[in-house]
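Q: Convert this sequence to structure tokens.
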Amino acid sequence: MSEFRGVAQDINAKALHNANINVALRDRDPDAEDAARALVGNLQGRVSIKALTDNLGLGARGYRALLKLVSFGDLLVPQNERITPATLVSRKECTK
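A:
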């Protein structure tokens, strides 16, 4: 039973972390969000958020825009994974 409790706490901690990211993204940056959408429009497979951020070339603005796409459901993250720059994401249509 304690093993289950530990797994549940770990999942809850990851969900809380990811929810806090979503709250931090309340401000809009339409230019960065449009650029991020254009970048991931033809994304094939899974790519790290950091690699996408680097390719976008907008620094923190680009990182936040990509997180916004995760929040909107346009980019998918593996279930129950803590979102970090190393997180591998894929397009909504590309789930393999």
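The longest helix spans residues 2-24.
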